[in-house]
Design brief:
mainly alpha, 491 residues, single chain, extended, 3% strand
């Protein structure tokens, strides 16, 4: 290509600067100086500029297309959420049914993780390191495998004990209770009639009250317990496929939990890697810190409550068996299950159990008193010694917030909400506390609560000052004026 052709190509490129080759250099006709670039370099530069401009134009069109597609998809999703909610929920439930074994496996692995860590870190790793049983590079994998086998064996053994106890004690107790429920109601009527025989009007009123509500209670038992038992028998006999499906979900979930337990550290590491890749460093650190606190709160509270409730149930069974309390196994199971619910659980378990004992043996009302005294001692032991040793204030909530969270989540999600309400609210409360402390730190104010108890205002220097109410007038404008005068330094 000649110099004049290069010059024409350069001028036809749309650039406002015109170049001409002079002795191997580019002469800038606009600035009147030599440019130390050859004509080939300038042509290459112009070609790259044109290519970049074309790419930007294509990117703009691509961005417009992506925006239009996302807008259409959002409108379609909004339409389905607003007008086709039933179809959306059907698809959601179908997806949930397909992934149910995975969810079950993750839950089982999460609950068994503390058991696995305890066996591995407290027993197997120190033992193998001390005696050098395996090679150092293979030791963690072998120890993890042995720990998983021991954890799975303990879990299956615990399930066997629970099922055998239910088949031998709980189910016969429930059947006997339902079969003799009317007899127990009549025993209660006889006892009340003897107690109120000197007051016939009050006795008749109480008897009518028992007659009225005994029918409702009996109907409730028949509808909710007898029918459920019949449904269970029908599922086991006629609907065996449905039972096998639930059993299949549990079996597959248990197998999945073994794989999750085997590689839980790498799964957590991958989640951290994705978090650091997607978010900025500060945001990723905050997310990981929040998830670590959530895990610590949930696993500490739920696993601690399960262990605590099992111990309380066993102690209750031993005590009620020694006292020869009727339906000792059923009462102990009820006490242990309700003990999982904080604060309200002991009352929810003790009151119905006491009523049941009274109806079974109305001629011996002292048995109810002995039972209530025993439950009171047991709950004091749990609240003051056993619970703090196991839970160790895992939530960090005051008593008011515990009651508040149980009431709120129990009203929203029932019994399940009462169980998980405390750790969920503890995570939310901790997040709010960290946010408030961060803002106070930026403003230079104290972060602890105690300095604000007697504080009346904050000075210009950021110091909390106490101004007693007796030193201020009752009139609000005068109070404001005096505060302003105190804040303004005297000249």
């Amino acid at each position: 290509m000649s110099n004049e052709e290069k010059k024409q190509n350069t001028e036809g490129s749309g650039s406002s600067v015109h170049f001409e080759e002079v002795s191997g250099y580019i002469y800038d006709a606009q600035n009147g100086e030599l440019d130390p670039r050859t004509a080939e370099q300038e042509e290459s530069r112009q070609h790259r500029r044109q290519k970049t401009s074309a790419i930007f134009r294509g990117s703009t069109y691509l961005g417009f297309g992506a925006t239009a597609f996302l807008t259409f998809a959002a409108c379609l999703l909004f339409y389905y959420v607003l007008f086709r909610t039933s179809d959306l929920m059907t698809g959601f439930h179908r997806l949930k049914a397909i992934l149910m074994p995975v969810f079950v496996g993750l839950i089982i692995a999460y609950l068994l993780s503390p058991v696995l860590n305890f066996i591995e870190r407290r027993f197997l790793l120190p033992f193998t390191e001390k005696h050098r049983i395996f090679r150092e590079e293979k030791r963690p994998a072998v120890v993890r495998s042995i720990s998983i086998i021991i954890t799975a064996a303990l879990t299956l053994f615990a399930l066997y004990l629970v099922i055998s106890m239910m088949l031998r004690r709980i189910i016969p107790s429930i059947s006997n209770l339902l079969r003799n429920f009317n007899v127990y109601i009549q025993n209660g009527e006889v006892y009340i009639n003897k107690l109120l025989q000197d007051r016939p009007e009050a006795g008749d009123y109480v008897t009518d009250l028992l007659d009225r509500y005994s029918k409702d209670i009996s109907a409730w038992f028949n509808d909710n317990i007898s029918s459920k038992s019949a449904d269970l028998l029908r599922i086991l006999s006629q609907g065996f496929i449905g039972f096998l499906k639930r059993l299949w979900n549990f079996v597959i979930g248990f197998i999945i939990s073994i794989y999750v337990l085997g590689g839980k550290e790498r799964m957590v590491a991958r989640a951290k890697k994705v978090t650091f890749a997607v978010f900025s460093r500060g945001t990723a650190n905050d997310i990981i810190s929040a998830m670590q606190y959530t895990h610590k709160t949930f696993i500490g509270f739920i696993s601690g409550k399960i262990v605590d409730s099992v111990i309380i149930g066993l102690l209750c069974f031993i005590g009620t068996t020694i006292m020869q309390t009727p339906y000792a196994s059923l009462v102990s199971l009820f006490i242990g299950i309700t003990n999982i619910i904080p604060f309200f659980g002991p009352y929810m378990g003790a009151i119905p159990s006491a009523i049941l004992i009274f109806l079974v043996e109305p001629a011996h009302p002292l048995n109810v008193v002995y039972f209530l005294i025993f439950i009171l001692i047991l709950q004091q032991f749990d609240g003051n010694f056993l619970g703090p040793k196991i839970l160790a204030n895992s939530t960090g909530l005051a008593g008011f917030w515990v009651i508040f969270s149980i009431t709120l989540f129990g009203g929203l999600f029932g019994v399940f909400g009462m169980v998980i309400g405390v750790p969920v609210f503890a995570v939310f409360y901790n997040g709010m506390k960290k946010s408030v402390r961060r803002k106070l730190r930026k403003k230079g104010y104290p972060e602890e609560t105690d300095p604000y108890i007697h504080a009346d205002h904050i000075s210009r220097d950021g110091v909390l000052e106490d101004l007693p109410d007796e030193e201020l007038p009752v009139n609000k404008p005068v109070r404001k004026r005096m505060r302003k005068q105190k804040k303004t330094p005297e000249e």
